[in-house]
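Lab meeting minutes (informal)
Scribe: AK
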Amino acid sequence: MRLFLNRWLLALCVLQLCSGCMLFNRHHSDADAPVPSLERQFATALQFLRQGNEQGARELLEQVVVAPGLAGVTDDALFRLALLKLRDGGEKGGQEGYSLLARLAKEYPDSIWTHQSAALTRYLSSTQKLFEKQRETRTVRELNLYLSRENKELRLNIEKLKKLDLELDLKNRR
């Protein structure tokens, strides 16, 4: 009986140890893995920014913002990436920065970064309108130049036709 009881206790201990391992493995499942990885990428991007490696930071921040969102990480990454895009300058940098800030406001309306970026978003919106007006102005100028050339060519053709008409009149009178 004692041998049976010892074996029973041994089997019970082995089962308990195995179930403990299962619980431990369940706690660190693959579903939880992306979150620390995302936070690690973001922390590395911040370190790159501190070191002045903007290109490395940009690449990591782009990976963070395309991954499934994580409040406190993705919103911060969107804001910082928008600022880096603005450093590119020009219309493209402004558009990319504005679209990232618009995404920030849409996906994380209560984020501190959304509130911090509100004035910048309004400024970029007006800048985008300015770029649009400049494009329209450029198009109108090109059209105006084309029409001026066309008009000049038509005037020259009219003058040629007048000369031909005068020559025909002179020939008919002779």
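Next up, CB showed the second protein from the same session:
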Amino acid sequence: MLKAFWGGPSGWRDRQHQDGTIDWIAPDGQTYHTTPGGRLLFPELCAPTAPVTTTGPVPPAHTSGLRMPRRTTTRAEHRARRIHDERELKSAAAEPEDEPPF
């Protein structure tokens, strides 16, 4: 696989063909021709494919309403509220309900 940081106009480029072969073009212009590894084991699978025909434009994805919901409070407000609630619970538990019997 060609790494993204090796590509670009001054880096390595590739040209892929329908039969699965790839021409790798080095930065200096040298071309390296490779064939698929499975060509020796499964030669019947390396036949060129038929031209792809499209049936029309791709329908738009219906994702316009699928966004993350907006927060009703900020994270800081939510954290302060949790701390306040926790302190109220702890102070209520710390207060004795009855006086000691002695």
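CB comment: The CA atoms of residues 59 and 66 lie 17 Å apart.
No objections, moving on.
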